[in-house]
Design goal:
It is built from twelve helices and 14 strands. With 541 residues, the protein is of the alpha+beta class. The chain folds into four domains: 148 residues, no CATH class; 100 residues, no CATH class; 71 residues, Helix Hairpins (Orthogonal Bundle), CATH 1.10.287; 158 residues, Histidine kinase-like ATPase, C-terminal domain (Heat Shock Protein 90), CATH 3.30.565. The strands form four sheets. A five-stranded antiparallel sheet has the order 3-2-1-5-4, with helices on one face. It has a five-stranded mixed sheet with strand order 7-9-10-14-13, covered by helices on one side. Strands 6-8 form a two-stranded antiparallel sheet. Helix 6 packs antiparallel against helix 7. The chain is rod-shaped and about 150 Å long.
Length: 541
């Protein structure tokens, strides 16, 4: 696979990689001979009287090119000597002979040799400096690019994808990701990555590896039949994280490995260092991901602890009040007519019984809300949806609202067209009951409550408006949180534990809808539920 197929990044790295790769002596010798042959051909074209200095310059230039395309000073020396010999043999009289007839020739040849040698040495030094600068620039560029990629990763899978892709770009070879199995006995190949960033099926030669061996044991070593029966050469880079994984040493700690599918000498020393830097950046990213996950878990635990504390506080205060009332009223009824107590008349006895019933109903409603919101948010409740008219749901809900509704002026504004919704009728009735009871609780006697139903743009809206004191803007943002009420933050007034509106939101979201609260004009609050309208079609026969 050619890494250059990966676009601009790979293209920019290709030239730099060739400048950093040391070629074989045969390659350097062929380059030197080729440049001298080319210089000889150019010299033959310039072989005219008066152009002898030009031919000499051509050979000096060829020697400089030899220094640029080879790595050793030996080739600079040999090319300089060969250039002088070729110029003397081919272009200086007597031709095709190394003898000299002019006493000035030895000095000229010496100067030519020195100029060629010095200029080629300077060219070689400049090339090495350029290669070092290119190596540093490449290393910095790729590390920064890797860092940017890793910063956008949200989990371990994305981090591994980024690391493996960068290693594949660097080497031009596939990269196999290994991780330990559930028992931690073997390293299993999970995925193969290429320079274009795709996650291909696992490499066909990738064997299963025992993590009890050190990762260094795998480098350039074919695995025998004891370890899977296939030879798999590769450059193995172990991935450690802050929980104790190490790059070398304890073999049992090797649980994550990135294997570059290539011979061990495919990477230069600089490229191997760069590969280690990429893995190190990935290790830091894995540590950050682990730390972020731990912080999120801690935040969830803290929130749950806060909810538990709020629940206990609400139960200890708000639930104790109606229980005390029920107990006290029951004691009065039980003690009537006993020694020293008066017999209650029928009206007083009925009032006590109604008070007990009211408190019991409130306690039952509170427990039902608590159980319902727990099941909805925990995913333990399954919706039993049916096609319902929103008007029928509101009508049924009004049969179950607080008896205190008789102290308010309640009005229902129906819709001209059918407001059909596909909902769990029991939950939706509970939602409307909670909204109406909330309006009854937080508005004075004689207040107006208006329930409106409408259909618009594929949505069914049901709003409950009142003309009470309203809700402050800062409270409207938190009114749907569990255990929060608008009066004093946590529920400790109006005999409310702050679960009704939270349950309303959970029910609306479970049906793919929404619930919002806004200020009414001139005062009061408007709670609006929006649900997807049911799509009813009739097949024509």
């Amino acid at each position: 696979m050619d890494v250059r197929t990966d676009g601009d990044i790979a293209d920019s790295f290709w030239w730099r990689r060739t400048t950093l790769t040391r070629r074989t002596p045969l390659y350097d010798a062929c380059v030197s001979v080729g440049l001298l042959v080319a210089a000889t051909i150019v010299g033959a074209l310039l072989d005219h009287p008066g152009l002898a200095p030009s031919i000499m310059i051509v050979y000096v230039f060829a020697v400089q090119l030899c220094a640029f395309f080879t790595w050793s000073r030996l080739y600079c020396l040999l090319s300089s000597a060969a250039a002088v010999a070729l110029y003397n043999f081919l272009f200086v009289d007597p031709r095709y002979s190394l003898s000299l007839i002019d006493r000035g020739y030895p000095g000229m040849f010496f100067i030519m040799f020195v100029v060629s040698l010095v200029s080629s040495s300077i060219a070689l030094a400049l090339r090495r400096a350029l290669a070092q600068a290119a190596a540093s620039d490449r290393r910095t560029h790729m590390v920064l690019e890797t860092n940017r990629m890793l910063q956008r990763c949200a989990d371990e899978q994305q981090i591994v994808h980024a690391m493996a892709t960068q290693l594949a770009r660097l080497s031009g070879c596939p990269v196999v990701w290994y991780s330990a199995d559930a028992e931690g006995d073997d390293l299993l190949p999970r995925a193969t990555y290429t320079a274009v960033g795709d996650a291909a099926p696992v490499h066909e030669l990738a064997p299963q590896m025992p993590p009890r061996l050190s990762a260094s044991a795998y480098v350039g070593t074919p695995l025998d039949a004891t370890y899977g029966g296939s030879a798999f050469y590769g450059i193995y880079l172990t991935v450690r994280t802050g929980d104790g994984f190490v790059r070398s040493g304890d073999p049992a700690s090797v649980v994550r490995v990135l294997a570059i599918v290539a011979e061990p000498d495919v990477l230069t020393h600089e490229e191997r260092t760069l590969a280690d830097a990429i893995v190190s950046e990935g290790e830091l990213a894995l540590d950050r991901a682990r730390a972020m996950e731990a912080r999120e878990e801690a935040a969830v635990l803290a929130k749950n602890e806060q909810l538990r504390a709020n629940l206990l506080r609400s139960i200890s205060h708000d639930l104790r009040t109606p229980l005390t009332s029920i107990s006290g009223n029951a004691d009065v009824l039980l003690d009537q007519g006993s020694t020293g107590t008066a017999v209650l008349d029928a009206q007083t006895r009925r009032g006590l019984l109604l008070s007990i019933r009211s408190d019991a109903l409130w306690l039952n409603a509170t427990v039902e809300n608590l159980l319902a919101i727990t099941k909805l948010e925990g995913g333990g409740m399954h919706l039993s949806t049916t096609l319902e008219l929103m008007d029928d749901i509101v009508e049924e809900a009004l049969r179950h609202v607080s008896p205190a509704v008789r102290e308010h002026d309640l009005k229902v504004v129906a819709c001209d067209e059918p407001a059909l919704v596909n909902v769990d009728a029991r939950l939706m009735v509970q939602l409307v009951v909670n909204l109406v009871n909330n309006a009854i609780t937080y508005t004075p006697a004689g207040s107006h409550i208006v329930i409106s139903i409408g259909v618009d743009d594929g949505r069914v809206a049901c709003s409950v408006a009142d003309d009470g004191p309203g809700i402050a803007s800062e409270d409207r943002e938190r009114i749907f949180e569990s255990f929060y009420t608008a009066n004093h933050g946590l529920a400790d007034s109006h005999r409310s534990v702050g679960l009704g509106l939270s349950l309303c939101r959970s029910i609306a979201l479970a049906h793919g809808g929404s619930i919002e609260v806004a200020a009414a004009d001139p005062h009061g609050s408007v709670f609006t539920i929006e649900l997807p309208a049911a799509d009813v079609s009739f097949d024509k026969e």
